[in-house]
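Forgive a beginner's question, but would it be possible to get a protein, spelled out as residues, together with the matching structure tokens, please?
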Amino acid sequence: MAIGKQQACWATPTTTINCVLIRVDRQIEAEGCVLKVSESSSQLAAPEFLAPGDFVKVRLWLEGENTSIHIGLAEVRRIQNHWITLEVVQVSRQERSRLQRYVESRQTVLRNQPVFIDHLLIRA
């Protein structure tokens, strides 16, 4: 892939994953859908539409909250059986702190191992 095309691809992702956090374990698990976004509309897309290395935006809704966490940039790492593994690349400090507080409040047992909030597992 040419450098210019790659930069344009990650600078303005045209795909958004809209999801709801369903489980906090070693990583965050969510359930949602893949949306192909254009200036005039958005369309549902199958997870297979994505490929490892693609960049997406993520709207992660939290139970009991009226606003979502906006993840400005995440990289697709793996797709398997409707599960998409993402690595968070860009999220504001405020949103990261909100997510961290939420995750910590949902842990039922104190653990020696932290939850990786930079990795998301999404069923789409």
Notes: Residues 93-106 form the longest helix (14 residues). The chain has one domain: 3-123.
